[in-house]
Design brief:
It is built from 16 helices and 43 strands. The protein is an alpha+beta fold. The protein is globular. About 20% of the residues lie in helices and about 25% in strands. It catalyses: L-threonyl-[protein] + ATP = O-phospho-L-threonyl-[protein] + ADP + H(+); L-seryl-[protein] + ATP = O-phospho-L-seryl-[protein] + ADP + H(+). It comes from Oryza brachyantha (malo sina). Pfam families: Pkinase (PF00069).
Amino acid sequence: MEPPFILLILFLVFIIAPSKAQQNITLGSVLTTQGVNSSWISPSGFAFGFRLIDANSSYILAVWFDKTIDKTLAWYAKTNTEVPDLVVVPSGSRLQFSSNGLSLLDPGGHEIWNPQVTAAAYASMLDTGNFVLAGADGSTKWGTFESPADTILPTQGPLSEVQLYSRLTSTGYSNGRFLLQVKDGNIEFDLVAVPSGNVYNSYWNPNTAGNGSQLFFSATGRVYFTLQDGAEINITSAIMGSMVDYYQRATLDPDGVFRQYVYPKNEAAKKWNNIGWTIVDFIPRNICEIITSTDGSGACGFNSFCSFNWNRNDTVDCQCPPHYSFIDQVQKYKGCKADFQPQSCDLDEETMIDQFDLIPMNGVDWPLADYEHFTSIGMDDCKKLCLTDCFCAVVVFNNGNCWKKKLPMSNGRMDSRVDRTLFLKVPKNNNSQSQLNGNSIKWKKDKKYWILGSSLLLGSFFLVCILLVLFITFRNYFATKSKKTDLPKQSSSTGGLPLKSFTYEELHEATGGFSEEVGRGGSGVVYKGQLQDQLGTHVAVKKIDRVLPDIEKEFAVEVQTIGWTFHKNLVRLLGFCNEGAERLLVYEFMPNGSLTGFLFDTIRPSWHLRVQFALGVARGLLYLHEECSTQIIHCDIKPQNILLDDNFTAKISDFGLAKLLRMDQTQTNTGIRGTRGYVAPEWFKNIAITAKVDVYSFGVILLEIVCCRRNVEKDMTNDDRDILTDWANDCYRSGRIDLLVEGDEEASFDIKRVQRFLAVALWCIQEDPAMRPTMHKVTQMLDGAVEIAMPPDPASYISSLQ
């Protein structure tokens, strides 16, 4: 029986072997644009071959991650010119491998591309993502790692001469507007003119010229470059561990940001990351601020402005000002154009003022577009100077200074730290096209037709008014007759933010009879539901247990006030139910639960993700305290009230409910608002409560985010570490910040930011509310925009407020 058994094993090996990914490619092998021989694949899931790039049957020669959902490209062939550009071939082309290397031939047999290699014996698609041509002795004759396109991979390097050109768009592969290059012992990020390739100014440069720097991507996920003296300077510092668990890449993206990405290979890694490629680090930190170039348009196109979305995959968002639109919605780098005729220089001043207006824009600036500057002038005179100047597109007034800006405007940016108001010149109405050209003077002279037209228009206006009054009268009459005993339903739209009034029956049906509980707190129980609308919107429905008896009539008004708040770091209120004794609030559903489930799980979320959590919560509180129409003090900031959407964006929930709830609903047994461990000390004192109570709670949460542990741990074996706020303060004072992130390699490699976050947290938890920073100052300190002084020791403060 033994020989047949051995033969069976050999037979199984024989039939299974061809299904394994190919490693060595022999001389004479050919790839075609279509069919089974279009690529060679490595065991780990990298592929080398032809990729279709558009519907016109155009192909490129590329290396890609074959096991990821989108089969992301890691390399693609470029020309051997001074400014290398994409090599594109039509359907029917082929790639031949011979001892003279690779030869890319078009359907007619003409050679398009050849890496110029001799004495090649075999080729191999390595598990590192490097496709190599090797000699008989195994030495590498050529590899894709030697000539990267826009991406580098772990183990790639050292690279002493290299150029990474960004792609022009996310869907196109031609050279873009940004270049990372290592040259003459220096590394720098440059702006590039399209399509000439002319290099403009550098927007990131550590000034290491002549020091012999070499770029390297380590196997553990750190991108750095080394100097002649052995010093290492980090570009990115994310440490993701073994390449067995993660695919990794670092790419100069089309927006000019160099980002490091990871993609989990196994189920354990996917527990906290199930959304494909995730950004773990990037540079520069805010490209919208760092690019200010006299050449070119800046980070975005001319006449547009740039904002950096920290909580939306750290992306760059280019926007057009009001009454402007993108020249090309796909290729936004081309900039924005005015949706109206420019102001004619042939008009008199009175006509100019009549036809154009200046609208304010806060937090926006085009810093290099000034062409005239006036001093000791009033705002009205400043505005008039722009309105009567046909070249003026924007005017800025600040403390008696007046700056006029003209088109095209470059280096536009939007940021909360831009502390100036611009006034943008736009037509007074949308029908002023005919009035804005040089023929408007002739139009003014022909008053006979103007009077006739005006009369007809005025008559039509009065007729419409009469019909409108009749309509409103009849609507109110029938609405009154059908009015129930409970409060009337609110409009489905409030201030442009849809806020719907639901019936109890609608919400009962949407939640399946309130069957699936997803959360519970002091104010009530939360249930998952699905609306019966066209999209089948998933919602979270909160049943409020107890409402103050003296605000029954104000309930809808208060809810509508909450509905006015709209920020990416706040859970959106979609509607409410105010029927009989039932009070329910309908929120957008947050599929990834609360921050509690992530921070205190057995698997620690990445440091980069935790940084985004902290920044998101800070920006949400900043909006509630300082940026919405009415200041809102949350009073119960804690991880359970920080929810995560499908992109893991942190959003504050349960804000604005303090006015709706009975006083004891958010109390602990100490008789104070909030949750034990997160409450500010002034709740214990007979002093006024301000927004600084939220600042205190944020400080505690910030420490929990940094350390991935609860503030109060009852089961700690070390009594010195029971209370996180006390232990963190001790570590800070003793210079042992490393103990707080012990075992967290990512955070340890970003120890300067850990130190900055810790200092911010210690400022936030000061016992004296007056010593705590505002949330505006907190966000500035977190971003590194301002210096942080040494925080006082909270333990040494003896409060005089009794």
